[in-house]
Amino acid sequence: MNGLGAALAIVGVAFVGIRFRAYSKEIDFDHIGSHVWVVVAAAAVAYAMAGLLLAAAWRELLCQMDVHAKRLWAVKVYGISQLAKYVPGNIFQFAGRQALGMAGGAPGWVLAKSTIWELGLLALAGLTYGGLALPLVFGWPVALGGGIFFVTVVVVAWMLGHGFSRLHIRPWILYLLFHGVSSLLFIWLLITVAPERAPALGSWAPIGAAYIVAWLAGLVTPGAPAGVGVRELVLMFLMRGQVPEADLLLAVVVGRVVTVGGDAIFFLGSSLLPTKIDGSID
Questions:
Q1: Which sequence ranges are marked TM in the entry (predicted)?
Q2: Global pTM value
Q3: Minimal CB count within 10 Å: which of 10, 182, 212, 257?
């Protein structure tokens, strides 16, 4: 199981290299200053740090099923397996985590169940932001979208607390925070690549929500590695007329470099953690 997980991680690394090469051909380097690359590097590090939120949420799900994993072990397994999401099929990060988790001593059925809960809560967290994106689609006031978002948060929290278990609220909140960080990083990139045509402050919330909705569309699309192509298509549809298309395309491409780079940094950092995978869970 440990060997299978490691093999999937290695394949993921190979696809990361391929993605970096593909994205570099789509960027017009002559129009990108050095300050943009500084922001890209900083955003990649921030995205890698945001991966800790995902690992923490996964550990919370395991603990709820009486698999009390150590924090460093959970981060290491999650970070190493995460790169496999770039392999076509959109499922190999879960297969790698399943293999590594079983090598650590976690029951296979618990790992599978945690994956189902993770996908459900991740999607639910993304849908929670959907109200903020509605002003882009229907031309509603941004304040109305904010109100819908607030009501949705309250309703979802109540449903999780009463319909399932209050313990599921904590991973859902961590997923909300991860989505929030990701959307802020995208807005930062959008402002950086075209500061003279940056969107107004009042439109940041809908734009960030559109990025999250596009991410969700990529997540639920089978066969698209890390949602490649699907997220970009949905994002361009939602944000038509909000920013110039050329600026949006550049931000999207640079944003992909950030997410791939962030996952690579998360992978490297997780691999260097001073904890072993095999037999770490009793």
A1: 34-58, 116-134, 140-160, 172-191, 203-228
A2: 0.86
A3: 10
